[in-house]
Design goal:
alpha/beta; Rossmann fold; 2 domains; 10-stranded mixed sheet
């Protein structure tokens, strides 16, 4: 499923620990690992020093990960970190970006020029975000958001493919209704129908999904609460990008300021977050 991973690691958080755990999962064992380090733009005599230091950091990271240097593609680039991650992901056609995060809130992320938040918002590729303040556990209990959309189905598929090869792995699907709706004549609410379809789709992948329904206007908070209750080790979420094509390269201020469910989950989820974004359609 995941064949080409881009790992953008500053060496300060739990990304390497997460990568070691992922490599124990069948879905990741054959994946090509690309390790990226971005050197800040410098001038004068310090440039060579920065590059030499970057080379040393990369060698140390490969050693900590227990990798054979011939099995990992190390990339050193100079420039703005957030733009460089997106550019390299495009060049490699990476099917997953793995990054660490300080877990900054919305406005804090803007003021601190957060690379992970920027990539989290703008990438059209799946992205695994590992916050620095989380204890990373082996992946056994996976939770996925269920919304009945096409990109939501993509997230469910990825979650199923992860879980089905984990001995004893469990999958929980959470659907949040912003308002309580009365049951239909058949005795089922719209939420029941959405979850039942998700269960059927999960069974088609050989996975049993436990459905959880919650009511509340604050969807992100409800999702995070549900993930905490089941002690999820990984949270898979879907996020549709509704911006027009002309605005794809522009920062969505509403999202940056916290009006996005996915952004709330990014900051508050009790587990690493795997974001599945609707791929950009190319003519």
């Amino acid at each position: 499923m995941f064949r080409n991973l881009l790992i953008a690691d500053s060496g300060k958080g739990h990304v390497e620990e997460m990568v070691r755990m992922l490599r124990d999962l069948p879905a990741f064992r054959q994946a090509r690992l690309n390790l990226l380090h971005v050197v800040p733009e410098q001038s004068g005599e310090t440039v060579q020093e920065h590059w030499q230091r970057a080379g040393g950091l990369m060698a140390e990271a490969v050693q900590r990960l227990g990798l054979n240097p011939t099995d990992v593609n190390t990339i050193i680039r100079q420039g703005d970190a957030k733009q460089t991650v997106l550019k390299v992901a495009e060049e490699l056609d990476a099917d997953l970006i793995v990054m660490g995060s300080r877990g900054l809130g919305r406005l804090q992320s803007i003021l601190a020029n957060s690379s992970s938040q920027y990539v989290f918002q703008l990438s059209t590729r799946p992205m695994l975000l590992v916050r620095d303040d989380l204890y990373v556990r082996h992946v056994n209990r996976v939770m996925v958001t269920i919304d009945g959309t096409g990109v939501g189905d993509d997230a469910l598929k990825i979650a199923c493919e992860l879980v089905k090869e984990i001995p004893g792995g469990t999958l929980t699907g959470v659907h949040v209704s912003r308002q309580q709706l009365a049951p239909s004549r058949g005795g089922k609410t719209p939420a029941d129908e959405v979850l039942e379809k998700a269960k059927q789709r999960a069974r088609s992948f050989g996975v049993e999904l436990k459905g959880v329904h919650r009511d509340g206007n604050d969807v992100g908070r409800e999702v995070c609460t549900a993930a905490k209750e089941i002690e999820a080790d990984l949270l898979v979420i879907a996020s549709q990008d509704r911006r027009p094509l002309v605005a794809k390269a522009l920062v969505d201020i509403d999202r940056l300021l916290g009006n996005s469910v996915s952004d709330f989950i990014r900051v508050h989820a009790p587990a690493p977050v795997l974001l599945v974004r609707e791929p950009e359609r190319r003519d």
